[in-house]
Write a structure and sequence with these properties.
seven-stranded mixed sheet; globular; binds pyridoxal-5'-phosphate; about 425 residues; alpha/beta
Length: about 425
């Protein structure tokens, strides 16, 4: 009998994976999970240090969420959201809007990328319906909004995006407010990019339908955090020039920063907010775009007006996904998870302080629980080597280049948080000398 890995290598093509290195990296074959722990087919357990790619909220197999999905399964597995509706979808829209004063309508999609596609199409169509088609999107250097072509168009990570440039939408980019020059404060860097954006909007604002940002943290760029003044300026400049502000909260949303939405930390409300990832507590794929009544209103008209939003997915608002999300949002509230997440972020910061001072580390960046530890490169794929060394110590991590990401489940306990940082510290010691 072939092993799982042999069968995998023979049959599977994995995302973001160079398959010539796949087996050499000794991938883990996960069989089951419980709380913050992943178990492989050989019975080894690993702390899930990245919340299974930034999605797990309370840990795996949370009894209340398991039960909500089972209860939903006993009532309705799926029905379309085109020409019909259902209670879990309606309830979820209401719950989401209750967390976002200033946003009024919810459009469901599947993955984070598909929510971004929805937001981009809504923004452009809104400009058409407002009397002036504006075909340009403004985004940030180092941005990541997903892998579908609209999302790639507003991305700014050359390694991921350069190949596809000939296929993409019309965009303009400004610098990353998170990429500070040596000795620059976050506010100084933000001021530079605000000046750049001000100049761009003065020149071309009349063609711009939306400014698209990851609020306060450019996550996939390696947790580049930036000053709230930039987000506030983007809000102001979008309004001044009649463009929309899209805050992509797919990574930052649902409590990762210690607030429900990162944009709330900056005291701003976008015109369109995208969310996904942790929305279902890490159980099922579901994303959403939250819109203002002003945007929604421009889509109202007769059937012949062409103002319909011609977009939808077969599994839009799948009831099982909505049931998981409803249970998640209810638990976040009843357990006071946002305060727990804030405390977890602070604990991570305290525990990482010695590592931040180490010569082996270039920088530790963190907002709430979203943490990137940039290690000094000691050859090719140092970040990957650190993650493998952490795995030997019972912690599962995944790097972005030489930035080791920590994104634990938001309810992670004290002992597990110490294990997480302890294993990372030892792994960095082992690999980066
Ligand atoms: C900010 C942001 N937007 C969009 C996406 C894409 O989400 P998905 O992978 O669910 O398509 C991601 C994924 O990491 C993300 O970080």
């Amino acid at each position: 009998m072939e092993s799982w890995l042999e069968r995998d290598a023979a049959a599977v093509w994995h995302p973001f994976t160079q398959h010539s290195l796949w087996l050499a990296d000794e991938p883990t074959v996960i069989e089951r999970a419980e709380g913050p722990w992943l178990y492989d087919v050989d019975g080894n357990r690993y702390l899930d240090g990245v919340s299974s790619l930034w999605v797990t909220t309370f840990g795996h197999r949370t009894p209340e969420i398991d039960q909500a999905i089972r209860d939903q399964l006993d009532r309705l597995d799926h029905s379309t959201f085109l020409g019909a509706t259902h209670p879990p979808g309606i309830e979820l829209a209401e719950r989401l809007l209750a967390t976002t004063p200033g946003l009024d309508k919810v459009f469901f999609a599947g993955d984070g990328s598909s929510a971004v596609e929805v937001a981009l199409k809504m923004a452009y169509q809104h400009s058409v319906q407002s009397g002036q088609p504006r075909p340009v999107f403004v985004h940030l250097a180092e941005a990541y909004h997903g892998d579908t072509l609209g999302a790639v168009s507003v991305g700014g990570i050359e390694l991921f995006h350069a190949t596809y440039r000939p296929l993409l939408l019309t965009t303009e980019a400004v610098g990353s407010p998170g990429l500070r020059k040596h000795g620059q404060t976050p506010a100084e860097r933000a001021a530079e990019v605000i000046a750049e954006l001000t100049e761009l909007m003065a020149r071309q604002g009349h063609e711009v339908c939306a400014i698209v940002v990851e609020p306060l943290v450019q996550a996939a760029a390696g947790m580049l955090t930036y000053d709230a003044s930039f987000l506030q300026a983007a809000r102001r400049l979008a309004t001044e020039h009649g463009a929309l502000l899209i805050c992509d909260e797919v990574a930052t949303g649902v409590g990762r920063t210690g607030r429900m939405w990162a944009s709330q930390l900056a005291g701003i409300t976008p015109d369109l907010l995208t969310c996904g990832k942790g929305l279902t507590a890490g159980y099922l794929p579901l994303s959403a775009v939250l819109a203002t009544d002003a945007v929604y209103g421009s889509f109202l008209g007769s059937a012949a007006s062409g103002r319909t939003f011609f977009h939808g997915h077969t599994y839009t608002a799948n009831p099982l996904c909505c049931a998981a999300a409803n249970a998640n949002l209810a638990l976040i509230e009843s357990r006071g998870l946002l305060a727990t997440a804030t405390a977890l972020g602070e604990r991570l910061g305290d525990l990482l302080a010695p590592l931040a001072d180490s010569d082996a580390v270039v920088e530790v960046r963190r907002l709430g629980t979203m943490t990137g530890v940039e290690v000094r490169s000691v050859g090719e794929r140092t970040g990957q080597a650190v993650c493998r060394a952490a795995r030997k110590r019972g912690v599962w991590l995944r790097p972005l280049g030489d930035v080791v990401i920590l994104m634990p489940p938001l309810s992670l306990g004290r002992a597990e948080t110490e294990l997480l940082v302890g294993a990372l510290t030892e792994a960095v010691d082992e690999v980066v000398r």
